[in-house]
Design a protein that fits this description.
This protein starts with a helix and ends with a strand. The strands form 11 sheets. Strands 3-2-1-4-5-6 form a 6-stranded mixed beta sheet, with helices on both faces. A 6-stranded antiparallel beta sheet has the order 34-33-42-41-38-39, with no helix packed on it. The chain has a 5-stranded antiparallel beta sheet with strand order 7-14-9-12-11, covered by helices on one side. By secondary structure, the protein is α+β, with helices and mostly antiparallel strands. It has 12 helices and 44 strands. It is flat, with a radius of gyration of 44 Å. Strand 31 and strand 32 form a beta hairpin. The longest helix is centred in the last third of the chain and has 41 residues.
Length: 695
């Protein structure tokens, strides 16, 4: 029975798959129109920036940043910014503007070193006037010469404005007014302010700085130690740099010279930088494989930067020594000569699904590099940005050996550009497309045209939905039919009405016109019998019904079987067996045994199991084919499939025929294969004896 149920179930599954196949059989015909071409848009890899590092140098920073690591990190980021066409300025404030360095072209080594040397003179002292410092930084960027550079402020503070002990005469209210004026000026000049709260514990300064950055579309961060600033400032700069720092390892120093092996990439790369940053003074560092391509371009107490010109695909060994227990971070930055390439349709309308492709190519020879392992390992994300609203939408993309296929459905007209951000062993960076104009969706034919119609039936279509439009233009509809008598058609208040008259095929054309444009559907209609048109559905319904009935039968059988099993589990053994054994071959009698049947599960037990417990099973081969079940409180049932003979009293018990035992009944079992016999006496005090109720 179980086998039959399983077979029925499997047949039902197969039938269900057949039904699914029939249901998706193409019955309808759809009409679409598409215009495509593939221009290559202009690419901009990195933004050119004017960056001002705004640092709180009040006396509290002596405890927050005892070793002035924040100064070294700003110096280090100044070196990092030299890889792009960026300008860097510096403002250090307490309750005065203690330090101010104008925007400087850091691509020039002499100017960059002069700025870094100026930062070294910073001392932490005085009170805190955030409004004064912020006003100075915003003013510096508002008056910058090159308006094509993106203005950015990276502000670091460990506390709110505090002028209680200041001798400047300014009040905290005046400082707050300057903060509000600075934010207004920053918004007017598109200056983004990134704030970093540096503190050993959570405090109100984090929330206060967040309100400043949020209003200028910047971001706010919290650092619990100066050493954590590297990751934060690098994350800020990754939005503007052609290539940001990538951490290779962070480890604890052992106080001795340590080595780290670094594999250099070789993938259209112009320069490669290795940056070593330590929380304690670096005593010595270098690269064992010295040659003319490797040079030191920047260093201070806590960092060293090496630059490798056009690296080859090989391994170098970096070594360093610093104080035991110091944290050492090794990072890399690459300046690659590959570029990104976008390719997409020349025209796009709102609501229309479109795809564009992106791939990496060599900046010199234009060769597609996307299939190389370095590019296959990159994490790439694509975005569409609306120029006016700045709305950013992440797009779905699919990677292949030739690059990426990206899908986009614009829901708003206007100018867009596309952005690709990548991150991986090559570093971090982005590519930006040129401006792309998207217009409102023109009238477009939708998927509602059915090729096959049943004879003597009416069919109606709403032409306003058939030519779906999201523009406010009236459409005028008309119809042209070829010769034939299969159908009659007419338009009644923008409703297309079709009446099928006789079997056959006929063509019609439907037109939708505006003052400037005309759209057309060419439609071939086949008129057939009910069976011809709907036979797939009829077969599908029939098979589906068969599957449903099959599944229903299976469920019904399963429920019945489960109920029977549950009922069997409620029965329990009562009474006991007393067994007497005889080994005919040896003429030896085994001692009598007794089994308390209530010790066994109600689902039943084999004689083999009983004999196994008294360790005499080897004498009685075939005992596993004798089953004992509880029948009710006063009876048990025995059934067998044994080659030997079984007697209830003097009556032979046939194979597979259950017999019930009452109190006092005796079963005789003869195992012919090994010449052994068993005599089993059933005892159930208080039950039935030979059909009589016992007192």
């Amino acid at each position: 029975m179980k086998w039959l149920v399983k077979q029925i179930f499997y047949i039902g599954i197969v039938c269900l798959q057949v039904v699914c196949g029939i249901m998706v059989f193409p019955i309808s015909h759809y009409v679409r129109a598409e215009e495509t071409s593939n221009p290559v848009l202009n690419i901009q890899q990195a933004e050119e920036c004017d960056i001002v590092f705004l640092l709180d140098i009040s006396g509290s920073m002596k405890k927050t940043d005892q070793n002035k690591i924040s100064i070294d990190i700003m110096k280090m980021m100044t070196d990092i910014c030299s890889m792009g066409n960026n300008c860097v300025g510096f403002v250090g404030y307490n309750d005065t503007i203690a330090y101010s360095y104008p925007l400087t072209d850091v691509t020039k080594k002499e100017k960059r070193n002069a700025l870094k040397k100026y930062m070294e003179n910073v001392e932490f002292k005085g009170e805190t006037d955030i409004g004064l410092g912020l006003n100075k930084a915003v003013s510096m960027l508002s008056k910058r010469k090159n308006k094509n550079h993106l203005p950015v402020i990276c502000m670091l503070s460990d506390g709110e404005t505090d002028l209680a002990n200041s001798n400047t005469g300014r009040t905290e209210e005046q400082s707050q007014e300057d903060v509000e004026k600075s934010i207004a000026t920053a918004k007017k000049n598109n200056i983004k302010i990134y704030t970093i709260g540096l503190n050993n514990q959570f405090s109100e300064i984090v929330d206060y700085l967040q309100t400043i950055s949020k209003q200028t579309k910047g971001q706010s961060y919290a650092a619990t130690s100066p050493f954590q600033l590297l990751e934060i400032i690098n994350g800020v700069m990754a939005n503007y740099q052609a290539s940001a720092l990538v951490n290779q390892t962070t480890e604890l120093a052992n106080g001795k010279i340590q080595q780290f092996k670094l594999k250099l990439p070789h993938c259209s790369m112009g320069k490669y930088r290795v940056v070593v940053l330590s929380s304690s003074r670096i005593e010595t560092s270098g690269i064992l494989e010295e040659n003319e391509k490797i040079k030191k371009i920047g260093n201070s107490k806590y960092y060293t930067i090496y630059e490798i010109d056009r690296p080859e695909n090989k391994e170098i060994t970096l070594y360093y020594k610093t104080k035991k227990g110091a944290t050492v971070s090794i990072n890399t930055q690459g300046l690659y000569e590959f570029v990104g390439n976008f390719e997409m349709k020349t025209k796009m309308n709102t609501g229309e699904s479109t795809e564009f492709t992106f791939w990496f190519k060599d900046g010199q020879n234009g060769e597609n590099l996307s299939s190389q392992s370095e590019f296959q390992d990159l994490e790439c994300n694509f975005y569409a940005i609306h120029v006016d609203t700045k709305t950013e939408v992440q797009l779905s993309s699919k990677k292949n050996k030739k690059g990426y296929t990206v899908g986009f459905i614009p829901n708003k007209e206007g100018e867009y550009y596309f952005l690709m951000k990548y991150k991986g062993s090559l570093g971090e960076g982005f590519y930006k497309s040129g401006i792309y104009e998207i217009k409102n969706k023109r009238p477009q034919i939708v998927d509602e045209l059915q090729n096959c119609l049943c004879i003597h039936r009416n069919k109606q279509y709403d032409l306003n939905k058939l030519f779906e439009s999201k523009i406010d233009k009236d459409l005028t509809y008309s119809i042209k039919t070829e010769e034939g008598n299969c159908i009659t058609v007419k338009i009644d208040e923008d409703i297309l009405k079709i009446q099928t008259e006789q079997l056959g095929t006929q063509k019609i054309s439907i037109f939708a016109e505006t003052e400037k444009d005309k759209y057309q559907i060419d439609w071939t209609i086949y008129v057939g019998t009910f069976w011809e048109i709907y036979q797939e559905y009829i077969i599908a319904i029939a098979i589906g019904s068969l599957v449903g009935v099959t599944v229903l039968i299976y469920i019904l059988l399963y429920v019945i079987q489960k109920r029977r099993r549950r009922k069997a589990l409620t029965k329990k053994f009562n009474g006991s067996f007393i067994g007497y054994f005889t080994d005919v071959k040896s003429a030896n009698d085994l001692p009598a045994m007794e089994w308390k049947l209530e010790n066994y599960p109600g689902v039943g037990v084999t004689l083999h199991t009983l004999l196994k417990e008294v360790k005499v099973r080897d004498y009685f081969l075939g005992a596993e084919r004798i089953w004992i079940y509880p029948y009710d409180e006063s009876k048990i049932t025995i059934v067998h499939n044994l080659h030997g003979s079984i007697f209830l009293g003097n009556k032979l018990v046939e194979k597979n025929m259950p017999v019930h035992l009452c109190d006092g009944d005796v079963i005789y079992i003869c195992f012919e294969e090994n010449g052994a016999e068993i005599e089993l006496h059933y005892r159930n005090i208080g039950g039935l004896r030979n059909g009589r109720e016992l007192g």
